[in-house]
Amino acid sequence: MLQRVLPARGLVLEIASGTGEHAVFFSRALPGLTWQPTDVDASARASVDAWAEAEGPETLRPAVALDVTARPWPVDAADAVVCINMIHISPPECTPALLQGAAVVLPRGAPLVLYGPFRVGGVHTSESNAAFDNWLKAQNPSFGIRNLDDVADMAAGAGFSTPETVEMPANNLTVVFRRG
């Protein structure tokens, strides 16, 4: 999926890189791209850097601190933004902050790729996603699976296109917005 929607060359800004395993995998699989991992959490950034040191290619940069709600972001330009499994495990204000921040760093036509579970038309796409949503909310009431229509409306308000949506394994979606 990423091979199809990301540019062949340039800088990919990954938001909320977590442990760094995605960053290592994708930077190897997409050698024409420079991969910039980020995370708000210092221990996550340390994990990303450990993975990068042990297994990452030269195109994988050291992780930087990035809180989507804080401006300016530490990376001021990117050719693509990728965000995997963040918006459902963060407070609701992080979603519009992510979209607005991505609109600042991306050029016209560039992709913003979101991956994770979503409700579609306000409805969970599976019973397992409904159970996961309940579990998330028990951990933190501000967490939860977001409604794709709401995210698309926020994205449009930030200057992004109608999303391309692709069903993925485990009841997840890849959602690709293009900067208008």
UniProtKB/TrEMBL annotation:
UniProt keyword list: Methyltransferase, Transferase
InterPro entries: DUF938, SAM-dependent_MTases_sf
One GO term (biological process): methylation
Keyword Methyltransferase on entry: yes
Top-level taxon in the UniProt lineage: Bacteria
GO molecular function terms attached to this record: methyltransferase activity
PANTHER family: UPF0585 PROTEIN CG18661
Name of the protein described by the UniProt record: SAM-dependent methyltransferase
